[in-house]
Amino acid sequence: xxxxxxxxxxxxxxxxxxxxxxxxxxxxxxxxxxxxxxxxxxxxxxxxxxxxxxxxxxxxxxxxxxxxxxxxxxxxxxxxxxxxxxxxxxxxxxxxxxxxxxxxxxxxxxxxxxxxxxxxxxxxxxxxxxxxxxxxxxxxxxxxxxxxxxxxxxxxxxxxxxxxxxxxxxxxxxxxxxxxxxxxxxxxxxxxxxxxxxxxxxxxxxxxxxxxxxxx
Length: 216
Hints:
By secondary structure, this protein is an alpha+beta fold. The chain is built from 3 helices and 10 strands. It has a single domain (20-208), classed as Immunoglobulin-like (Sandwich). It has helices at residues 2-14, 150-158, 187-215, and strands at residues 21-28, 50-57, 63-71, 87-94, 106-111, 124-127, 133-141, 162-168, 176-179, 181-182.
């Protein structure tokens, strides 16, 4: 199954013009500024939170899709009994002065507020059926952004001046963070990105059908 998906995506990419860009991020507590040490609301240690993310920019640089998976952050508010690990917001931050150890403004939100995946809304959140965490995917279209646009932020993203950040009740400024860097993906990553693109396309089709049905 994985080899088939990988082969399919590779054939799609090989048949398209221009150069697509793949990026990735590894999220953890130590990358936050300042670094975070998760605890419960009563001050007891809780498991370190972490995650990974993959990004794809099309050859015309008109959109960026992403898939992120996070662990030990409560995506629904009911995966654990404590409130400190509840997910509040999730964003991409970027700016000309951003480095792996400095903070920058929110340029695109995909969970909570601000929410900018809205033209159209391609956001998909899939909480883990068991365990704590979940998977997120979405599509940053050219005109979307938090007082900015994808076009305006491409230079920062491609130069490593951006990061993905998940904010919790305990750490409103961010509990886990990962610098977004250009990557050469393995076949497994191609397959994951294909799956993420398929999910986004499926959501768009369903929302289109629902909209037509509502107007009928």
